[in-house]
Amino acid sequence: MIYKEGDFVRTYLLEIPDYGSGTKALLDNLKRIAILDSNVKAERLLDPKYLTAMRLQFRERSSKILEKELPHLDEESKNTLIAILLHEMLGLGKLDFLLADDNLEEIVVNNHKDPIWIYHKEFGWLITNIFMDSEEQIQNYANIIARRGGKQITVLSPLLDTRLVTGDRANATLFPISGKGNTITIRRFRRDPWTITDFVKNHTVGADVLALIWMCMQYELNIIISGGTASGKTSFLNICLPFIQPNQRVITIEDTRELLLPDFLHWVPMTTREPNAEGKGGVSMLDLLVNSLRQRPDRIIVGETRSQKDAEVMFEAMHTGHSVYTTFHANTAE
Predict the structure, then answer these.
(1) 287-309 pLDDT, tens per residue?
(2) Do 238 and 296 fall into the same domain?
(3) What is the domain count for the chain?
(4) pTM, full prediction
(5) I need a labelling partner for 228 at 20 to 30 A (CA). Which of 49, 57, 205, 214 fits?
């Protein structure tokens, strides 16, 4: 990170190897060979284990091809070319380099003319030295994100809210809904999930408050967690959920999967689905709530309540006599 005199914000510098037209042609050839030699199953691209296996498979084949085409290439250059190839074929290109940084919370693409912005845990908003190549590239990445999340983003449906295979939350919009160009916003979640002890150690919450919440959950009281944007509502809800007894059935209802419950809980995650271009196939939060009541739940968790309709779903769940937990966007409890 550097700060130049006259700049309003710090700059986050990322050094990505630059290559010429000859190397680009070689990489394009490697892509074609790797795709022809591989049996990629699109329906399994949502599986992180399958993606990991595909990366290893592509790496091995690319290494053999490079050894054949460029026998005198040094190991460092070969690994660099393979990494670029993997990011472009199975990832999100330059965005993958940013997603690998544990200090980042948000990665924002506003259009191809402006540099990518990031939100750093320590320094806040920073501008990067990375640009997207074109609006078409941004839209292509948005389509990749949508497909892997089981959704779609088109001119007729230009808004996307989903999650990556890694569990990070992703949002995208298309021009002209976003006036300056296509956008992508990725909320990067911590790879090692927060725990109760983490929150106590960093003084986010005291043991007495957690003891009260534990008691409330033990007696199956309803809980609403409110806070501003990026204040940690979902993270706080996540650390409280292990208080639920393992012998109770838990159903979560969300627009976008964000909640992650421990393995020892009896948990069924459910997410909404947007209708297709013909207006069919949509599954709303209310649909999921009605369906969940037939699954004999002990606890119902309605993810993020952002609209009147979501609030109606939450209170309907409370009226069924089940213990309900949710989060609200609000700066104060009042």
Answers:
(1) 888 888 889 899 999 887 777 87
(2) yes
(3) 2
(4) 0.73
(5) 214
